[in-house]
Amino acid sequence: MTDKRALIIVDVQPTFCEGGELGVDGGNAVAQAIHDFVVRNRDCYDLIVTTQDWHIEPGRHWSEDPDYVDTWPVHGKAGSANAQLHACIKDLNIDHHMKKGQYSAAYSGFEGVEDNSDAVPTREEVDAMASRTLERLLRDHGVTDVDIVGIALSHCVKDTALDAQRLGFATRVYTDLSVPVSPELGELALDQLRDAGVILVEGADSTL
């Protein structure tokens, strides 16, 4: 069987970039770097997918007194400008978009459902999409290998990569196309990824 590779762009949204509700230093720069990487390497991928936090009523995930571990300020609010894809990513005209966390906490892209609209769905509508998972999309396209980039390396990038590896996809994370919430949490995430067998690579300026 011929290997097929997908690129998963995780949560590159204004809400997680400088000036956003949970802005990460370097977010805008990594959005531009991912854009440039895709322009150079698009033909090397059989599938490209984005993920987005698309919170509507995520329960305790949002808090007025957040601990920044399990609870967070309001962010990724479905339908808001800051929950849209970053302009650098939107410019790529990607066809497949996974929305996650509509009515619960969600970190991994594998917890989302494919929703290529910008609608704010009801719980019933989200339930009706339940079979449209990232795993299903990858399997339907015969994907064997995944590359993962985005924001934040220490959280949603890490969790998406760990799930991909657990599900049997040969998984790589581009460390220079991802940014953590902090250097310390970034190093912890890299250790977890290595321990799980995820391959860590650099090459933002390269052509595959």
Summarize the structure in words.
The protein is an alpha/beta fold and 208 residues long. 29% of the residues lie in helices and 19% in strands. It has 6 helices and 7 strands, in the order βαβαββααβαβαβ. α5 (153-166) packs parallel to α6.
Features:
208 residues, alpha/beta, 7-stranded mixed β-sheet, 6 helices, 7 strands, globular
- Judging from the principal axes of the Cα atoms, what is the shape? globular
How many helical stretches? 6
Sequence of secondary-structure elements:
EHEHEEHHEHEHE
Distance between the termini: 21 Å
Largest sheet: 7 strands, mixed
Cα-atom radius of gyration: 16 Å
> What structural category characterises the helix and strand content?
alpha/beta
Runs in which pLDDT lies below 50 for 5 or more consecutive residues are none
Percent of residues in helices comes to 25-40%
The chain-level mean pLDDT equals 96
Question: What percentage of the residues does DSSP assign to strands (E)?
Answer: 15-25%
Widest beta sheet: strand line-up: 4-3-2-1-5-6-7
Q: How many E strands? A: 7
